[in-house]
Amino acid sequence: MRGTQIRSVLLFLLLFLAVYVSLGDGISPEEAKELREEAREMFYHAFNGYMDNAFPLDELRPLSCAGEDTLGGYALTLIDSLDTLALLGDRQRFATSVEWLGKNLRFDINKTVSVFETTIRVLGGLLSAHLIASDYATGMRVPSYDNQLLNLAEDLARRLLPAFDTPTGIPFGSVNLLHGVDKHESKITSTAGGGTLTLEFGVLSRLTNDPIFEQVTKHAVRGLWARRSKLNLVGAHINVFTGEWTQKDAGIGTSIDSFYEYLLKAYLLFGDEEYLYIFQEAYAAAMHYLYHDPWYVEVNMDSAAIVWPLFNSLQAFWPGLQVLAGDINPAIRTHAAFLSVWRRYGFTPEGFNLASLSVQHGQKSYPLRPELIESTYWLYKATRDPRYLDAGRDMIASLQYGTRCPCGYCHISDVEQHKQEDHMESFFLAETVKYLWLLFDLAVGPDNLVEKGPYKYIFSTEGHLLPATPQISLVREHCLYYGAYCRSGDLRQTYFVPKSDKDKKESNDTIFYDSWTKDTYSSDYTTFEPSAVSGSIKGFCPGLNHGQKFGLLYAHSTDERQDYETNQVQQKESTTVESHSVLVLRGQSSDHLVPEYGSDRNDGQTHESDGTP
User: Fold this and answer.
1) Fewer CB within 10 Å, N- or C-terminus of the chain?
2) Any catalytic annotation for residue 257?
């Protein structure tokens, strides 16, 4: 038996090495153009199938050519597809879709929705489309557009805000758009669910000049990080009331993935060094405790003992994140390992057991996920290595021959049998075909909004385009510039301070606070005056480490809290993470936000989940 296992390991290593060392057959410019057009045709086959058979329901059933409501019943797939239409240069359909949504979309409905999914798919889709439709510089401005999507985005976000009314600041997983959080709502949420909201809410704050959206999502990140282990690892699920981890498995995949992603991307988009510091600490811990070159495992967050030697498909975003972080070499090796699984089955199963080298029982499906394709795009952009074009060609072939259905593209319920399932997630149009098209457009010689547009773009975890405009990325510098016009006229930075624990009941009943329904600063906030310095942080003792400068402390357990309170040492409530306001004015232009990678570069400056935690 042992000999058989050793043989299996050796065979799989040979498979991995064959993928890793191959430079590919090479793809000519003509073939790259054909593959780009094939990716475009894939998008329209699915998009037209949705519009003809499912719209205005949320998602398409591509086998039966019908529709279904899966999230909130508000044309989810159309919203998720908007910036892909713009990226493809389809002005007519983009404008028609924007106009229809502006007239017909509404969120005052009695629906309980996922805070995470609604944020990344709907809020992100609306914000990205607004930024494209309202700006002449994008070449896609809609003449009749008058901020309708921005108004809808703000309305939606305010309906999500009651979810953040918890002692820890970490939001509930679900909220009713009409009534707030149900009193029976689960207090358990995933780390990704609580920590993957900063981009969309932060952009909204900058566009509406209302800080509450950014404040609550940053407080949620602080709440999660304050409860990290001594190893700087976070678990998968947490109680939003007590702050206790209910699942202590630490990893880079399911339930945690995009927490890491948004730490780096929030820094790249907003220039907030607090996010960069947390990312650096979290990334270093992940590489030390989770990385078993070239794979990643799940470990106990306290002891680092391996609990799950599993590759799950959501891990496949990681090499792309490493490209944005400038850590190219491990990204190349890990991508090659992940790709070997794709080529073995034609797709990546939800789970692949690294001990048995087989598909994990109960995790045999492939729901059209984009993560490996996304990482392939970023690695090609960083290295210009033709092996990534070969990988993209294989992926198109797998999708075309294995998942194409009469009206769209189907889930694969079993990657070993290639059995189709009658469902198509909206992220197939928002991400999967988008990254395929971008990959081959880059190979041809890009002429699109991302590569040649007026701004650098950050991709959200749903693949939505968020531009690094001065209003979004340089808001404080813009407002401090002499003579600049800023709507608030107030440069003070405010931070949301939740009610203390003693004022919280063990109930999920929520209130729509005035500050969540008005465009004003409320007395419920504590305001600190930032010091404006150019290019560096000043005013702190040089002996402090970066965490102490930002006040990033650990949250104490219940027993520890009682001891501190007894000795009158702890001066703040146990669930409040101490923070200091720091204003950093960067001397560089916003061009540093997303680096351009040439074919001779293997490093870069310091960077999802399709969206399913």
Assistant:
1) N
2) yes
